[in-house]
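Entry 14. Ran structure prediction on the chain below.
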Amino acid sequence: MRTSLAKLVALAALLVGPCWGCGSSSGTLAPLIAVKGKVTYKGQPVTKGVVEFEPEGYGRPAEGQLQSDGTFELTTFKPRDGVVAGAHRISISEFDKSLAKDRALRKYGSPITSRLTAEVSPENTEFTVDLK
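Output, structure tokens:
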């Protein structure tokens, strides 16, 4: 079976198109800043879940698994590489079963409803999130 040049070009456009604009205007990716933190609920560490920082401007979201002591480190491309600098909306999801039943925590599952934010900069890399 023979594939025409037009079909190959169309296929390439479909595969490459979604990635267009993922980097900065110079064609390089924005530098990442290592970020870590801790999540607590009523003063106690949240021992299971996923924390996500979603940039408000540009860049990919980063996420981190909560550890048994409530701490996390964020990953964008490879483990613990961090996030882009700037304003971020935060969400926390996939709580353990005992917390997942708590209706008050459902709002934290979306960056829109959580109302949690963080400003990441080289000087501001550690965050404590106390859920209420």
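Helices lie at 5-16, 97-100, 111-114. Will compare against last week's run tomorrow.
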